[in-house]
Design brief:
Main location: cytoplasm
CATH superfamily of the largest domain: Glucose-6-phosphate isomerase like protein, domain 1
Family: Belongs to the GPI family.
Shape: globular
Distance between the termini: 53 Å
CATH topology of the largest domain: Rossmann fold
Helix content: 40-55%
Structural class: alpha/beta
CATH architecture of the largest domain: 3-Layer(aba) Sandwich
Catalytic activity: alpha-D-glucose 6-phosphate = beta-D-fructose 6-phosphate
Low-confidence stretches: none
Number of helices: 16
Radius of gyration: 23 Å
Function: Catalyzes the reversible isomerization of glucose-6-phosphate to fructose-6-phosphate.
Order of helices and strands: EHHHEHEHEHEHEHHHEHEHEHEHHH
Bound molecules: 6-O-phosphono-alpha-D-glucopyranose
CATH class of the largest domain: Alpha Beta
Mean pLDDT: 96
Largest sheet: 5 strands, mixed
EC number: 5.3.1.9
Number of strands: 10
Amino acid sequence: MEVDIGNALGTQPGLTEETLDRLDDRVADADDRIARGMADDEFGYASLNLPETADPAAIRAAVEPFDEPEAVLTVGIGGSALGAATLADALESDVDAYFLDNVDPDAVDALLASLPLEEVVVNVVSRSGTTAETLANFLVVREAMADAGVDWTERTLVTTGESGNLRRLAETHDLPALDVPEGVPGRFSVLSTVGLAVAALQGHDVEAVLAGGRDGMASLAGSLRESPAYAYGATTYALAERGALTNAFMPYSESLETFAEWFAQLWAESLGKDGLGQTPARALGATDQHSQLQLYRAGPADKLVTLVRPRERADSRIPETDLEGLSYLGGSSLGDLLDAEFAATEASLAAADVPNVRVEIDRVDERALGELLYGMEAACVLYGELASVSTFTQPAVEWGKKAARGLLGGGDFPEAEAVADKREFRID
Ligand SMILES: O=P(O)(O)OC[C@H]1O[C@H](O)[C@H](O)[C@@H](O)[C@@H]1O
């Protein structure tokens, strides 16, 4: 992974070389803190050890009973789904991957009706083993399998923490089960059992993903000038401090569209606290050049744009044409066009003094993805250190979880009482 922060210098808001020098002392301190956390396997920091601590053999052994499934259906939400979905959507496989990460009845019913349930592996994932959406969806899936005459106990893999409802279910039915590693919050779990079981079921090279993660680990250093991940974390932090409160995250590859969703959870849930944070806005190049870019370039000066792309990709030639005015396209390729659009967006933002950062990988493959995902996690942890927020907790999300559970009669939660306090000002 390479990061180019040149277009964040001298912009509005923007940085100077002197700011970066001053910031670099703080990066060195933050790097020390992160290294200590990793050495002690502290909660959250342990995630940055996963490229070395994850056990690909255990993952392979757990998926082995499901020889060549037609599809994998993951039931999970948030960090228990987005990492696996990022890899699944980035890499091609003959085994289709589906994700039930919402409880919209129409969508759930439609998906279940479309799947050959006797050929599907159900991968149910919940770190806590208590998340209402995941468990409810799993109960629905289980019943649909039973209705279709499929023995769900033969086709279900569980990934969960040490205790909780899901752990008990796995034990009761003797289901193949993987452990969510200690000290790893969901949004930092892509390089663990949580993110990699689907990749293994799809036949991807899990070792290569972890090797990419180790490339990312090796490139952490006590200076933002030496570490791409820390350059990204420090730059985004410093820009946020100066008013860039939105980070428009814009991959130029459809295969990385879900990566932007994963990034949004990582950034929002980790850094949005104590009145601080930077709102991740998901965009896709070149499509959103024709919509959102207007705002990014000409709206309030409260944004930075992160442009992500692979340097190499499979390409398609654009046929020659004698249509007047279009001959410049003929003989070129769709990839050339996408690269030109990328360069044009970058230049258009820079010309309007909008800070933008370029993140590049060689190509979309297992190793590069492992490094990219690790790099963004490390960037996020560094940002959290610089901002002095508690990166690995999510009290605001949990507040809502408790309120919803209370409303459904799942326990006595004071948060649920606040629902009755809703203010009304109706216009019919
Ligand atoms: O894995 P689970 O315990 O089911 O949690 C799934 C998700 O639930 C919550 O909303 C958390 O804030 C997320 O970070 C987490 O990834």
